[in-house]
Automatic annotation (TrEMBL):
GO terms for molecular function: NAD(P)H dehydrogenase (quinone) activity. Residues 4-140 form the Flavodoxin-like fold domain. This is NAD(P)H dehydrogenase (Quinone). Gene3D superfamilies: 3.40.50.360. It comes from Actinoplanes campanulatus. Keywords: Oxidoreductase.
Length: 189
């Protein structure tokens, strides 16, 4: 089993997204987790970081995130879709952790074996595909943010949580399928 590093962004430990995280790591034997809300990660790129010369060291919290990624063969991202993208907490994590010299030239060279993106959504996948949001989210995460930094990548949307209000039984069944999918994906890594 490959070591997997999971980057998780949801503020509520009772959320569906947290259930997805639990199902996913339940299928892994060797993993670490960056719980961005739980750890109080500071997601705003400061003026000093923006101006940092590439040869200067990165802040210690950024270095810790990069070390966790460097130690893993597989990277996983678990988060809810908020306004057709990841939460600002995770977007800010990319702003700060994907630094020059680590995530792009000069000097970057670390390539993960695989990156897996698991996101929950209120809309169903069919609805997100019809609006074009699914394709846009996939492009932003896999083509841009992951890009050549992983040899292969997966983008999985576990959608339809809006059904919880209108069709509780339908949502319970769909949710069970989603959690089984997350666990099966983990076991395949
Ligand atoms: C601020 C906010 C924005 C959201 N934007 C979207 C969206 O653009 N598309 C969508 O399908 N669901 C959207 N949702 C619904 C969440 O994706 C959904 O509640 C979540 O994935 C599953 O529930 P959880 O919060 O219990 O994990 C949004 C929810 C919040 C709180």
């Amino acid at each position: 089993m490959s070591p997997v590093h999971v980057v998780y962004a949801h503020p509520d430990p009772a959320s569906f997204t947290r259930e997805v995280l639990d199902a996913f790591v339940g299928g892994l034997s060797s993993y670490t987790v960056s719980d961005l809300y739980g750890s109080g990660f500071q997601p705003v790129l400061s003026a000093a970081e923006y101006a940092r010369p590439a040869s200067d060291p990165v802040p210690s919290d950024v270095a810790a995130e990069q070390e966790s990624l460097d130690a893993a063969e597989v990277w996983a991202f678990v988060y809810p879709v908020w306004w057709a993208d990841c939460p600002a907490m995770l977007k800010g994590w990319f702003d700060r952790v994907w630094t020059v010299g680590w995530a792009y030239k000069p000097g970057w060279g670390r390539v993960a074996r695989r990156a897996v993106v698991l996101c929950t959504a209120g809309y169903t996948v069919a609805e997100l595909e019809k609006s074009g949001v699914h394709q846009a989210m996939r492009t932003a995460m896999l083509t841009d943010r992951i890009g050549a930094r992983a040899s292969s990548s997966d983008f999985v949307v576990l959608g339809g949580s809006v059904l919880a209000g209108s069709d509780p039984a339908g949502w319970a069944s769909l949710k069970a399928d989603h959690l089984a999918h997350a666990a099966a994906l983990a076991r395949s890594l």
